[in-house]
């Protein structure tokens, strides 16, 4: 496995909901975005074009499976899928459930917040997110 010293994704220590030979899936602990997931390629690779064709197909299918699980469990209005890597140049995808009442909607979650989501709404979404790991694992196992 190719690793880079100081890369937070090479040195990832958070629990995974699924781990394979080439990538892992995590549910991010984000108070404002329950159900936020990441698919993280294990090797330190910067760009999709650095992967073989088979690996590109493999990881794309993984992102789609995670999106399906997020849609099933979280019932969002929209799902954002992003692979930026500007801050951490290690190949990974963000799969983020979005709602009309979330803090940033319709802008990206990294934009300036325009509202606060009601606490009881976030609590209900956090409760749903507790089911997400099992829904993801079912798709990969």
Describe the secondary structure blueprint for this structure.
Layout: E1 18-19, E2 23-27, E3 37-41, H1 53-74, E4 78-82, E5 92-98, H2 119-129, H3 132-140
Antiparallel strand pairs: 1-2, 2-3, 3-5, 4-5
Helix pairs in contact: 1-3
Protein name: HIT domain-containing protein
GO molecular function: catalytic activity
InterPro entries: HIT-like, HIT-like_sf
What can you see in these coordinates?
- The structure is a single chain.
- With 141 residues, the chain is of the alpha+beta class.
- The protein is built from 3 helices and 5 strands; from the N terminus they run βββαββαα.
- It has one domain: HIT family, subunit A.
- It is 30% helix and 17% strand.
- A 5-stranded antiparallel sheet has the order 1-2-3-5-4.
- Strand 1 and strand 2 form a beta hairpin.
Brief synopsis:
It comes from Massilia timonae CCUG 45783. A motif (Histidine triad motif) lies at residues 90-94. With 141 residues, the protein is an alpha+beta fold.
Q: Biggest β-sheet: count, sense, barrel?
A: 5 strands, antiparallel
Element pattern in H and E: EEEHEEHH
Helical proportion, percent range: 25-40%
Oligomer: single chain
Number of strands: 5
CATH architecture: 2-Layer Sandwich
CATH fold-level topology: HIT family, subunit A
Shape: globular
Q: Return the structural class.
A: alpha+beta
**Overall pLDDT level:** 93
Pfam family, one: HIT
GO molecular function, one term: catalytic activity
Organism: Massilia timonae CCUG 45783
InterPro entries: HIT-like (IPR011146), HIT-like_sf (IPR036265)
